[in-house]
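Deliverable D4.2, example record:
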Amino acid sequence: MRDFWDRAARWYDLSQRTNARACQAMVRYTADWVSPGSRVLECAGGAGILSLAAARKAAWVLCTDRSPAMLAQARKHARTLGAGNVSFAQRDIFAPPEPRLFDAVIAGNVLHLLDQPERAVRALAACLRPGGRLILPTFLQGEAAVWFRAALAAYRLAGFRPRHPYTAKSYENMLAGCGVGGIVYQKTLPGPLPVGFAVIVKQEVPL
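Output generated by the structure prediction step:
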């Protein structure tokens, strides 16, 4: 799948415009859920739009992705916006936690692509301090407009391999079964390909 995203990096920004309403809302809501002065990790950051949204309020953001080409796009966008509080690193979503835990972890539009999304959510939560926030917006392919489903079929011919056509309810059920904390916010962001926007607060360590 990484090869697909390396190829897609050149036209990824254009693809987001076809679903601009949902993507723009996702950026706004992500920024809303980042606390001022926080440390933020984004996994599967792609072109960095959510990392840059978080950087408006965070003290520091680490934007990571498996694809070097996607990270190059993210760095380019950060330079354009003058976002000096964003760093970049190649990293797998299942990698062990960083030495210092984060206040928020973002993983946008990736869980529907994974064979084991529950395992990914638990790996992301391991990077959080107790009480920290998991910010998890994900495309709801099960609720896509009919015409957008034709576009998704074209993506599949290019090597795009989604695993889970979530609806809002099936996405909620998957997150609730991960056992990492309570869903404190969930909203469907409308568009041709809606986004299920969810926030989980990591459970405190038992006394």
